Amino acid sequence: MLAFAGCNYLGLANDARVLQAVRAGLDRYGLSTTASRETTGNTTAFDDLETALAQFLCAEGSLLLADGYTANIAMAQALATRFRTVLIDAKSHHSVHDAARCAGLTVVTFPHGDTEAAAALARRHADADPAGSVAILTDGVFTSDGAIARLPALLAALPNERSLLVVDDCHGVCVLGPEGRGTVSHYGLSDPRIVVTTTLAKGFGSYGGCIAGPRWFVDLARTASGIYRCSTPIPPAIAMAAHEAIRIVLAEPERIDRLRSNVARLRAAFGTIGLPLRADHGGALIPIFAFVLDSPERMDRVHRSMLDEGILAPYIKYPNGPAEMFFRVVVNAAHTTEQIDRLADAFARRLPAMGLSGLSGGTDLQSPTGGSRVEGVA
Ligand SMILES: Cc1ncc(COP(=O)(O)O)c(C=O)c1O
Question: What b-and-e string marks burial along 93-104, b requiring 16 or more CB atoms within 10 Å of the CB?
Answer without folding.
Answer: bebbbbbbeebe
